[in-house]
Design goal:
CATH superfamily of the largest domain: MFS general substrate transporter like domains
Helix content: over 70%
Largest sheet: none
CATH architecture of the largest domain: Up-down Bundle
Strand content: under 5%
Radius of gyration: 21 Å
Order of helices and strands: HHHHHHHHHHHHHHHHH
Shape: globular
CATH topology of the largest domain: Growth Hormone, Chain: A
Structural class: mainly alpha
Protein backbone atom coordinates (compact mmCIF):
# COMPACT_ATOMS: atom_id res chain seq x y z
CA UNK A 1 0.00 0.00 0.00
CA UNK A 2 1.43 3.36 -1.01
CA UNK A 3 0.93 6.35 1.26
CA UNK A 4 0.12 9.53 -0.64
CA UNK A 5 -1.76 12.67 0.38
CA UNK A 6 -5.49 12.36 -0.22
CA UNK A 7 -6.84 15.10 -2.45
CA UNK A 8 -10.64 15.00 -2.18
CA UNK A 9 -13.60 17.32 -2.33
CA UNK A 10 -16.21 17.95 0.34
CA UNK A 11 -19.76 16.99 -0.69
CA UNK A 12 -22.02 17.59 2.34
CA UNK A 13 -23.89 20.76 3.26
CA UNK A 14 -24.77 21.54 6.89
CA UNK A 15 -28.35 20.48 6.23
CA UNK A 16 -27.18 17.16 4.84
CA UNK A 17 -24.99 16.59 7.90
CA UNK A 18 -28.05 17.17 10.10
CA UNK A 19 -30.17 14.88 7.91
CA UNK A 20 -27.51 12.20 8.22
CA UNK A 21 -27.21 12.40 12.00
CA UNK A 22 -30.78 12.79 13.21
CA UNK A 23 -31.65 9.08 13.01
CA UNK A 24 -29.05 8.49 15.74
CA UNK A 25 -31.26 10.31 18.26
CA UNK A 26 -34.01 7.66 18.59
CA UNK A 27 -31.40 4.89 18.54
CA UNK A 28 -29.59 6.58 21.43
CA UNK A 29 -32.85 7.11 23.30
CA UNK A 30 -33.72 3.42 23.18
CA UNK A 31 -30.18 2.47 24.19
CA UNK A 32 -30.28 4.77 27.23
CA UNK A 33 -33.72 3.53 28.29
CA UNK A 34 -32.52 -0.07 27.92
CA UNK A 35 -29.74 0.54 30.43
CA UNK A 36 -31.31 3.05 32.82
CA UNK A 37 -35.01 2.21 33.12
CA UNK A 38 -36.07 -1.12 31.58
CA UNK A 39 -34.31 -3.63 33.88
CA UNK A 40 -35.83 -2.10 37.01
CA UNK A 41 -39.20 -1.59 35.31
CA UNK A 42 -39.56 -5.24 34.28
CA UNK A 43 -38.00 -6.60 37.48
CA UNK A 44 -39.97 -4.47 39.96
CA UNK A 45 -42.99 -2.87 38.25
CA UNK A 46 -43.80 -5.98 36.20
CA UNK A 47 -42.70 -8.32 39.01
CA UNK A 48 -40.42 -10.55 36.92
CA UNK A 49 -37.41 -10.52 39.29
CA UNK A 50 -33.94 -9.03 38.96
CA UNK A 51 -32.15 -12.31 38.21
CA UNK A 52 -34.39 -13.39 35.34
CA UNK A 53 -34.60 -9.92 33.79
CA UNK A 54 -30.83 -9.43 34.08
CA UNK A 55 -30.22 -12.78 32.39
CA UNK A 56 -32.52 -11.91 29.48
CA UNK A 57 -30.86 -8.55 28.86
CA UNK A 58 -27.37 -10.05 29.24
CA UNK A 59 -28.26 -12.68 26.63
CA UNK A 60 -29.47 -9.86 24.40
CA UNK A 61 -26.03 -8.26 24.53
CA UNK A 62 -24.38 -11.56 23.58
CA UNK A 63 -26.96 -11.94 20.79
CA UNK A 64 -25.96 -8.45 19.61
CA UNK A 65 -22.29 -9.41 19.36
CA UNK A 66 -23.26 -12.22 16.99
CA UNK A 67 -25.82 -10.38 14.86
CA UNK A 68 -23.76 -7.20 14.34
CA UNK A 69 -21.12 -8.83 12.07
CA UNK A 70 -23.77 -10.96 10.35
CA UNK A 71 -25.93 -7.95 9.41
CA UNK A 72 -22.81 -6.00 8.48
CA UNK A 73 -21.72 -8.67 6.03
CA UNK A 74 -25.22 -9.10 4.55
CA UNK A 75 -25.44 -5.34 4.12
CA UNK A 76 -22.06 -5.25 2.36
CA UNK A 77 -23.14 -7.97 -0.06
CA UNK A 78 -26.56 -6.46 -0.87
CA UNK A 79 -26.62 -5.38 -4.50
CA UNK A 80 -29.64 -3.35 -5.54
CA UNK A 81 -30.51 -0.30 -7.62
CA UNK A 82 -30.91 1.66 -4.35
CA UNK A 83 -27.46 0.73 -3.04
CA UNK A 84 -26.50 -1.73 -0.29
CA UNK A 85 -27.71 0.12 2.81
CA UNK A 86 -31.04 1.81 2.12
CA UNK A 87 -33.11 -1.35 1.60
CA UNK A 88 -32.08 -2.57 5.05
CA UNK A 89 -32.96 0.76 6.63
CA UNK A 90 -36.35 0.98 4.93
CA UNK A 91 -37.25 -2.51 6.15
CA UNK A 92 -35.58 -2.16 9.54
CA UNK A 93 -36.95 1.16 10.81
CA UNK A 94 -40.67 0.17 10.92
CA UNK A 95 -39.82 -3.18 12.57
CA UNK A 96 -37.53 -1.42 15.05
CA UNK A 97 -40.35 1.01 15.89
CA UNK A 98 -42.75 -1.88 16.48
CA UNK A 99 -40.24 -3.65 18.74
CA UNK A 100 -39.60 -0.45 20.73
CA UNK A 101 -43.33 0.11 21.22
CA UNK A 102 -43.90 -3.46 22.43
CA UNK A 103 -40.83 -3.38 24.72
CA UNK A 104 -41.58 -0.01 26.34
CA UNK A 105 -45.38 -0.42 26.52
CA UNK A 106 -45.98 -4.06 27.50
CA UNK A 107 -49.54 -5.28 28.07
CA UNK A 108 -50.70 -6.01 31.59
CA UNK A 109 -49.54 -9.43 32.73
CA UNK A 110 -46.62 -9.67 30.30
CA UNK A 111 -44.20 -12.33 31.54
CA UNK A 112 -40.70 -13.58 30.90
CA UNK A 113 -41.60 -15.21 27.58
CA UNK A 114 -42.97 -11.88 26.32
CA UNK A 115 -39.86 -10.02 27.51
CA UNK A 116 -37.50 -12.56 25.96
CA UNK A 117 -39.28 -12.48 22.57
CA UNK A 118 -39.73 -8.72 22.38
CA UNK A 119 -36.22 -7.90 23.62
CA UNK A 120 -34.75 -10.31 21.04
CA UNK A 121 -36.75 -8.53 18.33
CA UNK A 122 -35.54 -5.17 19.64
CA UNK A 123 -31.86 -6.17 19.60
CA UNK A 124 -32.19 -7.67 16.12
CA UNK A 125 -34.00 -4.78 14.45
CA UNK A 126 -31.85 -2.19 16.22
CA UNK A 127 -28.88 -3.86 14.50
CA UNK A 128 -30.72 -4.08 11.17
CA UNK A 129 -31.10 -0.30 11.27
CA UNK A 130 -27.90 0.81 12.97
CA UNK A 131 -25.19 -1.18 11.16
CA UNK A 132 -26.23 -0.36 7.56
CA UNK A 133 -27.01 3.24 8.57
CA UNK A 134 -23.68 3.79 10.31
CA UNK A 135 -21.85 2.10 7.44
CA UNK A 136 -23.01 4.90 5.15
CA UNK A 137 -20.90 7.30 7.18
CA UNK A 138 -17.79 5.25 6.38
CA UNK A 139 -18.20 5.24 2.62
CA UNK A 140 -20.36 8.13 1.43
CA UNK A 141 -17.85 11.00 1.58
CA UNK A 142 -14.65 11.28 -0.50
CA UNK A 143 -13.17 13.88 1.87
CA UNK A 144 -11.01 12.69 4.81
CA UNK A 145 -12.05 15.55 7.12
CA UNK A 146 -15.70 15.42 6.17
CA UNK A 147 -15.71 11.86 7.51
CA UNK A 148 -14.99 13.38 10.92
CA UNK A 149 -17.92 15.77 10.48
CA UNK A 150 -20.19 12.80 9.68
CA UNK A 151 -18.99 10.93 12.77
CA UNK A 152 -19.37 14.13 14.79
CA UNK A 153 -22.94 14.63 13.59
CA UNK A 154 -23.87 11.14 14.78
CA UNK A 155 -22.09 11.67 18.11
CA UNK A 156 -23.87 15.00 18.74
CA UNK A 157 -27.31 13.56 18.01
CA UNK A 158 -26.44 10.52 20.12
CA UNK A 159 -25.71 12.72 23.14
CA UNK A 160 -28.89 14.72 22.53
CA UNK A 161 -30.94 11.52 22.41
CA UNK A 162 -29.43 10.14 25.61
CA UNK A 163 -29.98 13.39 27.53
CA UNK A 164 -33.56 13.73 26.29
CA UNK A 165 -34.48 10.13 27.14
CA UNK A 166 -32.99 10.45 30.64
CA UNK A 167 -34.88 13.72 31.20
CA UNK A 168 -38.37 12.71 30.02
CA UNK A 169 -39.63 11.57 33.46
CA UNK A 170 -38.58 14.92 35.01
CA UNK A 171 -39.62 17.15 32.08
CA UNK A 172 -43.14 15.73 31.88
CA UNK A 173 -43.47 14.84 35.61
CA UNK A 174 -44.31 11.21 34.87
CA UNK A 175 -43.82 7.96 36.72
CA UNK A 176 -41.62 5.39 34.96
CA UNK A 177 -44.41 3.36 33.23
CA UNK A 178 -46.03 6.46 31.70
CA UNK A 179 -42.60 7.93 30.88
CA UNK A 180 -41.64 4.76 29.00
CA UNK A 181 -44.82 4.92 26.92
CA UNK A 182 -44.16 8.56 26.05
CA UNK A 183 -40.53 7.75 25.26
CA UNK A 184 -41.62 5.03 22.85
CA UNK A 185 -43.85 7.54 21.05
CA UNK A 186 -40.93 9.97 20.68
CA UNK A 187 -38.66 7.18 19.44
CA UNK A 188 -41.16 6.07 16.83
CA UNK A 189 -41.76 9.63 15.60
CA UNK A 190 -38.08 10.54 15.45
CA UNK A 191 -37.20 7.26 13.75
CA UNK A 192 -39.66 7.87 10.93
CA UNK A 193 -38.54 11.51 10.66
CA UNK A 194 -34.88 10.49 10.64
CA UNK A 195 -35.43 7.87 7.95
CA UNK A 196 -37.34 10.35 5.78
CA UNK A 197 -34.61 13.00 6.14
CA UNK A 198 -31.91 10.44 5.36
CA UNK A 199 -33.64 9.15 2.22
CA UNK A 200 -34.48 12.65 0.99
CA UNK A 201 -31.26 14.56 1.61
CA UNK A 202 -28.26 12.27 2.23
CA UNK A 203 -26.30 11.56 -0.98
CA UNK A 204 -26.34 7.96 -2.15
CA UNK A 205 -23.24 5.99 -3.08
CA UNK A 206 -23.71 2.77 -5.02
CA UNK A 207 -20.27 1.65 -6.18
CA UNK A 208 -20.60 -1.27 -8.62
CA UNK A 209 -19.29 -4.56 -7.21
CA UNK A 210 -18.32 -7.35 -9.59
CA UNK A 211 -16.30 -9.56 -7.24
CA UNK A 212 -17.84 -12.82 -6.01
CA UNK A 213 -19.88 -12.53 -2.83
CA UNK A 214 -18.04 -13.04 0.44
CA UNK A 215 -19.41 -14.86 3.47
CA UNK A 216 -18.95 -13.46 6.96
CA UNK A 217 -15.82 -15.48 7.76
CA UNK A 218 -14.12 -14.59 4.48
CA UNK A 219 -15.08 -10.91 4.85
CA UNK A 220 -13.77 -10.77 8.43
CA UNK A 221 -10.55 -12.45 7.35
CA UNK A 222 -10.14 -9.91 4.58
CA UNK A 223 -10.78 -7.04 7.01
CA UNK A 224 -8.21 -8.33 9.51
CA UNK A 225 -5.66 -8.79 6.74
CA UNK A 226 -5.31 -4.99 6.75
CA UNK A 227 -2.62 -3.89 9.22
CA UNK A 228 -4.27 -0.54 9.88
CA UNK A 229 -7.59 -2.19 10.71
CA UNK A 230 -5.99 -4.60 13.18
CA UNK A 231 -4.23 -1.77 14.98
CA UNK A 232 -7.33 0.44 15.01
CA UNK A 233 -9.74 -2.11 16.48
CA UNK A 234 -7.09 -3.26 18.96
CA UNK A 235 -6.52 0.29 20.22
CA UNK A 236 -10.26 0.94 20.24
CA UNK A 237 -10.89 -2.18 22.33
CA UNK A 238 -8.32 -1.09 24.94
CA UNK A 239 -9.73 2.45 25.17
CA UNK A 240 -13.33 1.25 25.34
CA UNK A 241 -12.43 -1.19 28.11
CA UNK A 242 -11.11 1.76 30.09
CA UNK A 243 -14.24 3.79 29.30
CA UNK A 244 -16.51 0.92 30.37
CA UNK A 245 -14.89 0.75 33.79
CA UNK A 246 -15.11 4.50 34.36
CA UNK A 247 -18.67 4.82 33.05
CA UNK A 248 -19.89 1.73 34.88
CA UNK A 249 -18.54 2.91 38.24
CA UNK A 250 -19.28 6.65 38.02
CA UNK A 251 -22.45 6.44 40.10
CA UNK A 252 -20.71 4.44 42.85
CA UNK A 253 -17.72 6.81 42.84
CA UNK A 254 -19.89 9.93 43.21
CA UNK A 255 -22.07 8.27 45.85
CA UNK A 256 -19.41 6.71 48.08
CA UNK A 257 -16.15 8.58 47.45
CA UNK A 258 -17.48 12.12 46.91
CA UNK A 259 -20.55 11.30 49.05
CA UNK A 260 -22.87 13.42 46.97
CA UNK A 261 -25.53 10.99 45.68
CA UNK A 262 -27.94 13.88 45.11
CA UNK A 263 -25.54 15.26 42.47
CA UNK A 264 -25.24 12.03 40.50
CA UNK A 265 -27.77 13.09 37.87
CA UNK A 266 -26.39 16.61 37.32
CA UNK A 267 -22.79 15.38 37.17
CA UNK A 268 -23.60 12.66 34.64
CA UNK A 269 -25.57 15.24 32.67
CA UNK A 270 -22.50 17.48 32.74
CA UNK A 271 -20.42 14.60 31.40
CA UNK A 272 -22.86 14.08 28.50
CA UNK A 273 -23.01 17.80 27.78
CA UNK A 274 -19.23 18.18 27.66
CA UNK A 275 -19.08 15.29 25.20
CA UNK A 276 -21.19 17.30 22.76
CA UNK A 277 -19.56 20.69 23.44
CA UNK A 278 -16.01 19.49 22.78
CA UNK A 279 -16.74 17.58 19.55
CA UNK A 280 -15.65 20.52 17.33
CA UNK A 281 -12.32 20.71 19.19
CA UNK A 282 -11.32 17.16 18.25
CA UNK A 283 -12.29 17.74 14.60
CA UNK A 284 -10.27 20.97 14.60
CA UNK A 285 -7.21 19.21 16.04
CA UNK A 286 -7.54 16.38 13.52
CA UNK A 287 -7.55 18.87 10.65
CA UNK A 288 -4.64 20.89 12.06
CA UNK A 289 -2.48 17.89 12.96
CA UNK A 290 -3.99 14.44 12.34
CA UNK A 291 -6.78 12.18 13.54
CA UNK A 292 -4.23 10.01 15.30
CA UNK A 293 -2.80 12.95 17.28
CA UNK A 294 -6.27 14.27 18.09
CA UNK A 295 -7.28 10.90 19.54
CA UNK A 296 -4.01 10.59 21.49
CA UNK A 297 -4.54 14.07 22.95
CA UNK A 298 -8.00 13.06 24.19
CA UNK A 299 -6.69 9.82 25.70
CA UNK A 300 -3.95 11.72 27.56
CA UNK A 301 -6.44 14.35 28.75
CA UNK A 302 -8.74 11.71 30.20
CA UNK A 303 -5.81 10.00 31.91
CA UNK A 304 -4.78 13.27 33.60
CA UNK A 305 -8.37 13.91 34.72
CA UNK A 306 -8.70 10.41 36.20
CA UNK A 307 -5.34 10.81 37.93
CA UNK A 308 -6.79 13.87 39.64
CA UNK A 309 -9.86 11.84 40.65
CA UNK A 310 -7.66 9.55 42.77
CA UNK A 311 -6.94 12.47 45.14
CA UNK A 312 -10.58 13.49 45.67
CA UNK A 313 -12.76 12.70 48.65
CA UNK A 314 -15.91 13.69 50.49
CA UNK A 315 -17.30 17.09 49.46
CA UNK A 316 -14.93 17.70 46.50
CA UNK A 317 -17.83 18.66 44.27
CA UNK A 318 -16.13 21.31 42.11
CA UNK A 319 -13.05 19.15 41.33
CA UNK A 320 -15.20 16.14 40.47
CA UNK A 321 -17.29 18.35 38.18
CA UNK A 322 -14.07 19.27 36.35
CA UNK A 323 -13.19 15.58 36.11
CA UNK A 324 -16.60 14.91 34.54
CA UNK A 325 -16.06 17.70 32.01
CA UNK A 326 -12.65 16.38 30.92
CA UNK A 327 -13.72 12.73 30.88
CA UNK A 328 -16.87 13.58 28.92
CA UNK A 329 -14.84 15.63 26.45
CA UNK A 330 -12.49 12.71 25.83
CA UNK A 331 -15.45 10.37 25.27
CA UNK A 332 -16.36 12.54 22.27
CA UNK A 333 -12.97 11.96 20.65
CA UNK A 334 -13.27 8.23 21.36
CA UNK A 335 -16.55 8.29 19.42
CA UNK A 336 -15.41 10.40 16.44
CA UNK A 337 -11.79 9.64 15.69
CA UNK A 338 -11.82 5.81 15.49
CA UNK A 339 -14.93 5.93 13.28
CA UNK A 340 -13.43 8.57 10.99
CA UNK A 341 -10.14 6.66 10.81
CA UNK A 342 -12.04 3.48 9.97
CA UNK A 343 -13.69 5.34 7.08
CA UNK A 344 -10.23 6.23 5.75
CA UNK A 345 -9.10 2.61 6.00
CA UNK A 346 -12.24 1.35 4.24
CA UNK A 347 -11.83 3.94 1.48
CA UNK A 348 -8.15 3.06 0.99
CA UNK A 349 -9.02 -0.60 0.51
CA UNK A 350 -11.73 -0.04 -2.09
CA UNK A 351 -11.01 -0.28 -5.78
CA UNK A 352 -13.28 -0.77 -8.77
CA UNK A 353 -15.34 -3.94 -8.50
CA UNK A 354 -13.99 -5.11 -5.13
CA UNK A 355 -16.24 -6.24 -2.29
CA UNK A 356 -17.58 -3.68 0.16
CA UNK A 357 -16.27 -4.08 3.70
CA UNK A 358 -17.66 -1.02 5.50
CA UNK A 359 -20.50 -2.93 7.17
CA UNK A 360 -18.31 -5.83 8.26
CA UNK A 361 -15.54 -3.58 9.59
CA UNK A 362 -17.98 -1.36 11.47
CA UNK A 363 -19.86 -4.34 12.90
CA UNK A 364 -16.62 -5.88 14.21
CA UNK A 365 -15.77 -2.57 15.87
CA UNK A 366 -19.30 -2.35 17.36
CA UNK A 367 -19.15 -5.94 18.63
CA UNK A 368 -15.83 -5.29 20.38
CA UNK A 369 -17.28 -2.15 21.95
CA UNK A 370 -20.26 -4.09 23.32
CA UNK A 371 -17.99 -6.79 24.71
CA UNK A 372 -16.08 -4.21 26.75
CA UNK A 373 -19.18 -3.32 28.77
CA UNK A 374 -19.11 -6.82 30.24
CA UNK A 375 -15.87 -5.84 32.01
CA UNK A 376 -17.48 -3.82 34.86
CA UNK A 377 -20.01 -6.59 35.54
CA UNK A 378 -17.62 -9.50 35.01
CA UNK A 379 -14.46 -8.08 36.59
CA UNK A 380 -14.93 -4.95 38.70
CA UNK A 381 -18.20 -5.80 40.46
CA UNK A 382 -17.18 -9.34 41.58
CA UNK A 383 -13.77 -8.15 42.82
CA UNK A 384 -15.34 -5.24 44.70
CA UNK A 385 -17.78 -7.68 46.25
CA UNK A 386 -14.86 -9.92 47.20
CA UNK A 387 -13.21 -6.91 48.87
CA UNK A 388 -16.36 -6.42 50.96
CA UNK A 389 -17.54 -3.24 49.24
CA UNK A 390 -21.17 -2.46 50.15
CA UNK A 391 -23.44 -0.41 47.88
CA UNK A 392 -25.44 0.65 50.90
CA UNK A 393 -22.46 2.46 52.44
CA UNK A 394 -20.29 2.08 55.51
CA UNK A 395 -17.19 1.14 53.51
CA UNK A 396 -13.68 1.29 54.94
CA UNK A 397 -10.87 3.37 53.48
CA UNK A 398 -9.37 0.34 51.72
CA UNK A 399 -12.71 -0.54 50.14
CA UNK A 400 -13.03 3.01 48.78
CA UNK A 401 -9.46 2.74 47.49
CA UNK A 402 -10.48 -0.43 45.65
CA UNK A 403 -13.45 1.40 44.11
CA UNK A 404 -11.21 4.29 43.02
CA UNK A 405 -8.74 1.79 41.60
CA UNK A 406 -11.35 0.33 39.25
CA UNK A 407 -12.89 3.74 38.48
CA UNK A 408 -9.63 5.58 37.74
CA UNK A 409 -6.33 3.71 38.20
CA UNK A 410 -7.00 0.67 36.01
CA UNK A 411 -8.54 2.85 33.25
CA UNK A 412 -5.43 5.07 33.37
CA UNK A 413 -3.18 2.05 32.91
CA UNK A 414 -5.29 0.83 29.99
CA UNK A 415 -5.21 4.27 28.39
CA UNK A 416 -1.43 4.53 28.80
CA UNK A 417 -1.14 1.13 27.12
CA UNK A 418 -3.33 2.38 24.29
CA UNK A 419 -1.10 5.45 23.88
CA UNK A 420 1.96 3.23 23.48
CA UNK A 421 0.18 1.07 20.89
CA UNK A 422 -1.30 4.01 18.96
CA UNK A 423 2.04 5.84 18.90
CA UNK A 424 3.64 2.84 17.17
CA UNK A 425 0.66 2.07 14.93
CA UNK A 426 0.57 3.06 11.23
CA UNK A 427 -2.61 5.06 11.76
CA UNK A 428 -2.01 8.34 9.94
CA UNK A 429 -5.04 7.32 7.91
CA UNK A 430 -5.44 10.68 6.15
CA UNK A 431 -2.57 9.60 3.88
CA UNK A 432 -3.85 6.13 3.08
CA UNK A 433 -4.80 5.25 -0.46
CA UNK A 434 -4.44 1.89 -2.10
Amino acid sequence: MTAIPAQRTSTFSYWQLISFGILTTPLAMSGLVLVMFLPTFYAVEMGLGLGAVGAIFAFGRIFDVVTDPLIGNLSDETRSRWGPRRPWMVIGVPLYCLAVWMLLSPPEGAGLVYLAAVSAAFFLFYTVVDVPYSSVGLEVSPDVHERSYLAGSKAAFQVAGAIFAASIPAIFALQVPAALTLTSEWIVGLSLLGLAAFLAFVPSKNRPVTAPRLGLVAAARLAFSQTQFRYLVGCFFIVQSANALTAGLTVLYITHVIRAPELTGPLIGLLFLSTAVFLPLWVFLSKKHSKKRSWMTAIATCSIALAGATFLGEGDVVPVALVCVLVGASFGADAIMPTSMLADIVDAGETAGTNRLAGTCLAIKNALSKLTFIIPMGVAFPLLDLAGFAETGGNTGMQLVALTGFFAVLPILLRLLSLVVIARAPLHTEKLRA
